[in-house]
Specification:
heterodimer; A: 339 residues; alpha/beta; Peroxisomal Thiolase, Chain A, domain 1; twelve-stranded mixed beta sheet; two-stranded parallel sheet; 10 helices; 14 strands; B: 152 residues; mainly alpha; 8 helices; 75% helix; SpoVAD (chain A)
């Protein structure tokens, strides 16, 4: 009985997050969560020649840190699940070339963080892997360049625009007991309610997040108050109120425990317009901040819903809209079970 | 109250959830910053005419060249985009914005080489301005020619 309800997976075996690794760029390290991250770079270039190489370094370093913390080597990992925002998921592919772990490349835009975590847990649960490494990365310069304008191009501020987080987050999963347990996961549907403005992804993604969260509570029978936090990936200050309104119309009140990674990672006075976005946004906040809180026991149960805008820069010019998706994972504090 | 759970009308109903666009402040900032750039340009032109004795036309060309150089340098130092975030259209419209679009595209494409990187992508953003600049110059030039002939 792995599947419950329509879209939710409840893992039968206890699957633990044994270790995590997070790396971030300069702006993220000036944010309020600085101390939850393992490593930060003072320069956006991360001492590399170009943005794409910088992103690979972020992911590579996060993997090294994660494996060191989990006392593991690449040889003992059964599967590597990773994705990023760049064309052909080039960062993940190139890092997979270096680490030589059987690899599945994923693309779910900014939802890839929870997509990889859910799949990793599922592969362990079904017995096809004993250890799984799940990771994502994004880089502001590389993403801006691919999806918007050159980094140094000066354009006016758009209030609804989100700012791609520079960083990488990696989690090591296995059945070896640890402080954080992966309980359930929900795979979202692609939802498109007709928003075609790439500078307003919070508004575009809110219905997808609402759909996933609503279905999750229907499937599992949980109530929002069963969770210390319900965290969305990158709805920003624009999408978050819309999400709460969409759910409250369906008699689901998450206003008390809803948080958004895109708003948690930066200070309000940082120049990021509506908030953070990108694969790394939900990944570094979850694997850095939330996993630390769960380990300490200050929070017991959290639902992380990573939201992804599946937009394509070419097709958007052809007047198409933005399909969006959201995947959720439930993490619980495992109490005093030490590894 | 309008229900937001309505996929068909979402793009209309979500409008009340959007942050307001400060049109007046944007216009004021664009006027002040854009005006300031023009004042600098005018001072440069006067300087070229009065201190270096250039003709008005030559001084105008030199002024554009100077502003383009300054803008390109500021882009390279990573200052122009920060300035533009506050100045808005004030930094976008003058020749400095044009120079910024070319320089930033060139800088970004450096990693792919000089020919296929920089040369190919240099006019990625500015290309549209050049195309419509040339087209509209042709159209209005022709109209002017006709009117001049009619008036003779």
């Amino acid at each position: 009985m792995g599947k419950i309800g329509k879209q939710t997976w409840r893992f039968e075996k206890p699957i633990y997050i044994n270790a995590t690794g997070t790396t971030v760029g300069p702006l993220e390290s000036q944010g309020p969560l600085k101390d939850s991250f393992d490593k930060w770079f003072d320069k956006l270039h991360c001492d590399e020649k170009n943005w794409e190489a910088a992103e690979r370094k972020l992911l590579q370093e996060a993997i090294t840190i994660c494996l060191n913390k989990g006392n593991q080597t690449t040889k003992n990992i059964d599967i590597f699940l990773a994705g990023d925002l760049l064309n052909q998921t080039v960062t993940s592919n190139f890092v997979a070339r270096e680490i030589q772990i059987p690899f599945l490349g994923l693309f779910g835009a900014c939802s890839t963080s929870m997509e990889s975590l859910a799949l990793g847990a599922q592969l362990i649960d079904s017995g096809y892997a004993q250890t799984a490494l799940c990771g994502v990365s994004s880089h502001n310069g590389a993403a801006e360049r691919q999806f918007r304008y050159p980094t140094e191009y000066g354009g006016p501020t758009v209030k609804t625009k989100t700012f791609t987080v520079t960083g990488a987050g990696v989690a090591l999963l296995s059945q070896k007991t640890s402080h954080v347990i992966v309980k359930e996961a929900i795979i979202g549907k692609v939802v498109d309610w007709g928003i075609g403005d790439p500078n307003n992804m919070g508004t575009a993604m809110a219905p997808a997040a609402a759909d996933t969260i609503y279905t999750f509570f229907q499937d599992t029978g949980y109530n929002p108050q069963d969770f210390d936090m319900i965290v969305t990936g990158d709805l920003s200050s624009v999408g978050s109120p819309i999400l709460k309104q969409l759910l409250s119309e369906k008699k689901l009140d998450i206003s008390k425990n809803h948080h958004d990674c895109g708003l948690m990672i930066y200070r309000p006075n940082q120049p990021v317009s509506a908030g953070g976005s990108g694969c790394a946004c939900s990944a570094v906040v979850t694997y850095g901040h939330l996993v630390k809180q769960l380990t300490k026991g200050t929070i017991k149960r959290v639902l992380v819903v990573a939201t992804g805008a599946l937009l394509n820069p070419t097709v958007i010019m052809q007047k198409e809209t933005i399909p969006c998706i959201a995947h959720g994972v439930v993490l619980e504090a495992a109490g005093g079970q030490n590894s | 109250m309008v229900k937001l759970n309505d996929p068909k009308n979402y793009s209309k109903n979500m409008k009340s959830y959007q942050p307001s666009v400060p049109y007046f402040m944007n216009c004021l900032k664009a006027f002040l910053f854009g005006g300031a750039i023009c004042v600098i340009g005018q001072s440069l032109q006067e300087m070229y005419i009065h201190s270096f004795h250039f003709t008005k036309d030559n001084a105008g060309n030199l002024t554009s060249a100077t502003l383009i150089l300054i803008s390109a340098l500021l882009t390279g130092f990573g200052v122009y985009d920060k300035f533009a975030r506050y100045a808005g259209a004030g930094s976008l419209v003058p020749v400095t914005g044009f120079a910024n679009s070319i320089t930033s595209a060139g800088l970004e494409s450096k990693s792919e080489g000089i020919v296929l990187g920089i040369a190919t992508n240099l006019f990625k953003l500015a290309g549209a301005v050049i195309v419509f600049g040339v087209v509209s110059a042709t159209v209005f030039g022709t109209i002017r020619l006709f009117i001049e002939h009619l008036l003779k």
